[in-house]
Amino acid sequence: MANLAINTAQNVNLDYKIVSIGERIVAFLIDGFILYMYALLVNYVGDAFRDVLNDNWSVFGFMSLLFLPAMFYSLLMHILFNGQTVGKMIMKIKVVKVDGTPVHWSSYSIRWMLRLVDIWLFIGAIGILSILFTDRRQRLGDAAAGTVVISTKRKTKISHTILEEVATDYTPTFLNVTKLTDKDVRLIKETYRTAKRTADHKTLKQLRNRVEEVLETTSELYDIQYLDTILRDYNYYTQNM
User: Fold this and answer.
1) Paired residues of 15 in beta bridges
2) Which helix (H) or strand (E) holds 204?
3) What is the dihedral sign for C-alpha 177, 181, 187, 193?
4) Which of 6, 84, 162, 231 would suit a FRET pair with 26, their CA atoms being 20 to 30 Å apart?
5) Nearest C-alpha neighbor of 37 from the set 69, 65, 6
6) Closest Cα to residue 14, out of 190, 155, 164, 152?
7) C-alpha closest to that of 4 among 114, 95, 117
8) Element (H, E) at 118
9) What is the predicted pLDDT for the residue at 104?
10) Within 10 Å of residue 134's Cβ, how many Cβ atoms?
């Protein structure tokens, strides 16, 4: 199983599974079925307008115009839906940059243009061989664009990182919580989760006292409420800076 480690803006390493060739083929077939159904629709519309246009060349031009979205389907979908087509959405996979930076439209364009070699020119043989014999399972288009296809089912859960779910309308309580570092918060969260799970109230109290000492704060909140608030406040400020 191949994995890709990506470092987030909060300095948290997330390991993603690089998808197998089978998953990519299934996603490709799903997209192919969608394009097939679209082609049937275009043919139906073309037949409906054939009598109206009364000119084979006009019908050909009209149908060619309708086929344009299909020709650029893969490129447009990846750009508009952040590295995913319908097939990739269903298979829960997506295209990302190897270094974790956002994928620029130019990278999608490189992948799309090299589909000619990877998929169409040799009936998929080049793309399949490239995926099978590269460490990151990249076809030529991926290698040229610096991208890789990963599973969106993250192995690392948010509860295992310093991240906390914070609502968009959340109002922070402790303004000076940013005095903490990512390392501090990771230690606080690990200690807090362990103490809470084992009902170790003594450790919770000591942890709370230490955090209050560092932040120079006092609060009427209970220990668990206080530590929960600290973690959420920290994430609110770091995610919105």
Assistant:
1) 5
2) helix 201-215
3) positive
4) 6
5) 69
6) 155
7) 95
8) none
9) 93
10) 16
DSSP string, 25-69: HHHHHHHHHHHHHHHHHHHHHHHHHHHHH--HHHHHHHHHHHHHH
- As given in the structure block, the two tokens for residue 165 are 């779910």
Cα distances (angstroms) measured from residue 185 to each of 21, 175, 180, 196 = 39, 15, 7, 16
Q: For residue 51, give every residue at least 6 positions away whose Cβ sits within 8 Å of its Cβ, in sequence order, or none.
A: none
Cα dihedral sign, 82-86-91-92: positive
Residue pair 120/114 in contact by the 8 Å Cβ criterion: no
Nearest to 118 by CA among 24, 189, 53: 24
Per-residue pLDDT of the chain (241 residues; tens, 9 = 90+): 566 555 544 444 556 789 999 999 999 999 999 999 999 998 888 887 777 777 777 778 888 898 999 999 999 999 999 999 999 999 999 999 988 788 999 999 999 999 999 999 999 999 999 999 998 999 999 999 999 999 987 554 444 444 555 566 678 888 888 888 888 888 888 888 888 888 888 988 999 999 998 888 888 888 988 988 888 888 777 765 5
Tokens 């990846």 identify what position?
78
Other beta carbons within 10 Å of 181: 12
Distance CA(199)–CA(184), nearest Å, equals 22
Q: Which residues are bridge partners to 6 per DSSP?
A: 14
Looking at residue 152, its amino acid is T
